[in-house]
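Hi V.,

Quick status before I head out on leave. The structure for the redesign project is tokenized and pasted below; the design run finished overnight.
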């Protein structure tokens, strides 16, 4: 889990909130978009880590079987 993406999600939430309070639809939409982009990046990073972990697990099983 990326701390940077969590920070970007929080920043997007704040920006979206400021947009709502100030009735600035552009800022509100930008904040919402930043949240979504950061969440997608976070999910992609988690998926990549899971795949890499699975690959390492398979490698370890193959090494164990070769002994």
């Amino acid at each position: 889990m990326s701390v940077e993406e969590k920070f970007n999600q929080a920043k997007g939430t704040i920006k979206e909130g400021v947009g709502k309070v100030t009735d600035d639809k552009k800022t509100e939409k930008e904040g919402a978009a930043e949240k979504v982009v950061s969440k997608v990046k976070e999910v992609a990073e988690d998926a990549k880590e899971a795949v890499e972990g699975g690959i390492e697990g398979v490698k370890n099983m193959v090494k164990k079987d070769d002994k």
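Above is the designed sequence. The mean pLDDT is 91.

G. will cover questions while I'm gone.

Best,
W.
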